[in-house]
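Our working data are protein records whose layout never changes between entries. An example says more than a description, so a record of this kind follows.
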Amino acid sequence: MSARRAGIDVGGTKCLGVVLDDTGAIVQEHRLPTPRGPENIIDTLERLAGVLAPFDTIGVGVPGLVTRDGVLKAAPNLVDIADFRVGALLSDRLGVKVEVDNDATCAAVAEWKTGAARGLTDFVMVTLGTGIGGGVVAGGQLVRGANGFTGEIGHIVVDPDGPFCPCGRRGCWERYASGSGLAGLAREAALAKRVRRVVELAGGEADLVRGEHVQAAAREGDHDALNVIDTFGRWVALGLVNLTNVLDPQAFVLGGGLAASADLYLGPIQQWFTQYLYAPDLRPHPTLAFAQLSEHAGAVGAALLADVH
């Protein structure tokens, strides 16, 4: 009998559940809105697991700091969540073991086992969405760290005097190199009376400028929008270089919402990466690949956690 592996990805607005067969193919999926508060989230996860049943194993990916025993210690983008015992509480409800890890780590597992990083032994997953998440595979092993917190790369501080981050500190990398960071760079340019076309696409309101407005103007060839893209690529490259100096990966796999417009960013990222990298002419450069599993990556990786924990 073939095994059924269930996985659930808890996002800021929705919980996406999938079931995989022995080949890793998705044979079932279902989604429910993400509620507020830990008790309501557990109720939703139990309900979603009921829809996905029967299954042989189940895993859950959640955003934030996740301990090795499945406690969500902090989650800046979920309301009223701290020291949330996701694994134990859901295990009690379902009567089975529940694997739990960070959502971006789950995405890394998915791309490693079935996607863009298949066959690699050393890579870093970088999810560029509203914030930045990460997952690390080194020496053919998923890296979790002493406490389970490896991969919080979005909160590397690149400017201690920079803008406030939802985590409570200033100048985190994700304030510059995420989707919200791109929009912030564009709004700064708009207030300085640049990016006129970007503002037009935002209905004439600088405060309403979003990343997609920058992308649309850049695709039209707008010079100012392309300058914003270049600045954004510089910030992305800065973080990737720092990670390269620490981890020496074969590749970076870039995922999240911005990966859909990879063609706009790849050139600037590669150009700035070479300029910032230590001894760029004397070492191999990691490749830049783009995620293949789209919105399913977190749920698919959660379903595969039992294979790598």
The chain has two domains: 5-112+295-308, 119-291. DSSP finds eleven helices and 13 strands in the chain.
